């Protein structure tokens, strides 16, 4: 696809948005399952430092590629595609100077007959499209932990293992010769290294058992000194991210303060002390922060909607102008040139999957660059509204409700969709599965049950020992709340989810058949003890706590089989649709296969489908479309929406 075609699609998308009264306009056509199964044209586009080229993950012939779009309007076709090795998934894309693109890829390797995920780093020449591997000849699991990239693109600092058994060392890798030079040796127990904004590795965080410590040095020619060893303390302030500043003993840290919410703090590295609070949101954790030239520019957080707090006064003014020009949308600056004169802006909402705009501060022009989902241009979508309700013990649960367009707000059929994780959260924005269900006439509830992240440490801690228990109650209570209000018909409710959400759907089919007419699980787990044996970090909420294996169980004498759907198969009387990817390395396909086998033996009503070569989600649009069609037919049969 050429740059002009990409640009034209962005213009068409923007015109479609401007020309229609609303995304819920009944005159708009209803999207198909294939429309919702489509992948976005671009994923996480980034500007080169000089603002001349956009690099982005994209798809071509159902394969992941890197797209490079030259923004020079005098070039007839400034877009070209670079293919990457197969059997790898793209994790992120960033620039190294103006001529090189770094790409993190995720693959798998065999280790004693077991598939393990591995990350690797590739480099693409922006002009020749030549691709190079960046790293050691022999590496362990993690090969994409980039600590620093030289602004001119001459070199980078990479923290990586020399084997699967060793902690990482730090290497300076020349990006012309690709030769590595070890600059920080591996140290026992130290798995995280941090460089300052000048490219000097200043600190490392180590741990062993219940002990942890920080290593620190002032300059590159000094040895690291260890701070006091201490025990992990559940009442201690947890640090999520460090950033030392060059030429100073201080820097920044994202940490949980006295309120239990993660905020931004000054950090004294020499004395290993958290200093003054720079920013804390009164309701939610911060997600990240951004510095430029050693100065704080922004803090990002998600309340009911994604938001940003700018510390740069010019960008704060720009944000206000964007929000006035594109109301009802989350408008996020996603990439900037080094001089801040060119910016890429993503404007999106729940009923608008998004437009990428290019803003030129020199000319004050805001131009559409690409509409992310071409098949949805001009078609009808549903708005999503933040909601809050009380669980049975009085705890406030936050979530989102999407109502089907044109169906009113009374006695609707419902699909409740608990999120995966479980220690993540749902957020406001476009969700193809939610929108597909709404297009078929269903209300969709997405509860952020106890244990969901983003709402402070206390809320996460309330999920301790509540896996499949209090978490499940919160989901059920959301259904009862909507039924009590008259919004939904209590006799027409189905539950659907993926990963932990798939587990919750399977559990609901056995635990509460009186509440749900059917259940749908994608990549769900059926055997909790087996999943914990497979990967003890499966349910990690490492930002808040480090012992989630125990926290999943709760009471040490609690029998995990009692919350495993596999052990409750004989209680499953409602129809269930079970689907799984054959190459899922997060939740093994055996978790669904064993559930299918048990239901088959008991002759319980269910459907079962495996998606070849898919992982813990859908990469192939054809498979995503097939799954939505199966969901639609399953709901038509067991929980019809009616007219």
UniProtKB/TrEMBL annotation:
<feature type="signal peptide">
    <location>
        <begin position="1"/>
        <end position="23"/>
    </location>
</feature>
<dbReference type="GO" id="GO:0006508">
    <property type="term" value="P:proteolysis"/>
</dbReference>
<keyword id="KW-0645">Protease</keyword>
<feature type="domain" description="Peptidase S9 prolyl oligopeptidase catalytic">
    <location>
        <begin position="429"/>
        <end position="638"/>
    </location>
</feature>
<protein>
    <submittedName>
        <fullName>Dipeptidyl aminopeptidase/acylaminoacyl peptidase</fullName>
    </submittedName>
</protein>
<keyword id="KW-0378">Hydrolase</keyword>
<dbReference type="Pfam" id="PF00326">
    <property type="entry name" value="Peptidase_S9"/>
</dbReference>
<keyword id="KW-0732">Signal</keyword>
<dbReference type="InterPro" id="IPR001375">
    <property type="entry name" value="Peptidase_S9_cat"/>
</dbReference>
<dbReference type="InterPro" id="IPR029058">
    <property type="entry name" value="AB_hydrolase_fold"/>
</dbReference>
<dbReference type="GO" id="GO:0004252">
    <property type="term" value="F:serine-type endopeptidase activity"/>
</dbReference>
<keyword id="KW-0031">Aminopeptidase</keyword>
<dbReference type="GO" id="GO:0004177">
    <property type="term" value="F:aminopeptidase activity"/>
</dbReference>
